[in-house]
C-alpha cells in the first residue's frame, strides 16, 4: 500500500514515516501542499495523510485540488 504523508513539521513527518515503514507500507513524505500536488501527479497513492496547516496552502485546499 502506498502512503503519502504531507506534514511540514520534520519531527512529526519522520515519526509517521518510521512507524508506517515499520508496518511495511511504502511511504513518500513531503513538506508542502505544492509538493503533495506534484507527487500525486507522478503516481497513485492508496492513502494520503494530510496536515491541515501547511506553509503554502491549507490542507483543505490541497484536498479539494486533489
Question: Keywords, please?
Answer:
three-stranded parallel beta sheet, alpha/beta
Give structural notes.
With 66 residues, the chain is an alpha/beta fold. It contains three helices and three strands. Strands 2-1-3 form a three-stranded parallel β-sheet, with helices on both faces. Strand 1, helix 1 and strand 2 form a beta-alpha-beta unit. The longest helix has 13 residues. The radius of gyration is 11 Å and the shape is globular. It starts with a strand and ends with a helix. The mean pLDDT is 96.
Q: Please report the total strand number as a whole number.
A: 3
Fraction in helix: 40-55%
* Apparent shape: globular
- Segments where pLDDT lies below 50 for 5+ residues? none
Strand order of the largest sheet: 2-1-3
Give the rounded overall mean pLDDT: 96
Strand fraction? 15-25%
Question: Which structural class is indicated by helix and strand composition?
Answer: alpha/beta
CA(first)-CA(last) distance = 19 Å
Order of helices and strands: EHEHEH
Sheet with most strands: 3 strands, parallel
Radius of gyration over all CA atoms, rounded: 11 Å
Number of helices: 3
Amino acid at each position: 500500500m502506498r502512503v503519502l504523508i504531507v506534514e511540514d513539521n520534520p519531527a512529526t513527518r519522520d515519526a509517521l514515516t518510521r512507524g508506517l515503514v515499520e508496518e511495511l507500507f511504502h511511504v513518500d513524505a513531503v513538506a508542502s501542499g505544492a509538493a503533495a500536488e506534484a507527487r500525486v501527479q507522478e503516481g497513485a497513492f492508496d492513502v494520503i495523510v494530510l496536515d491541515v496547516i501547511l506553509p503554502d496552502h491549507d490542507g483543505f485546499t490541497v484536498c479539494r485540488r486533489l
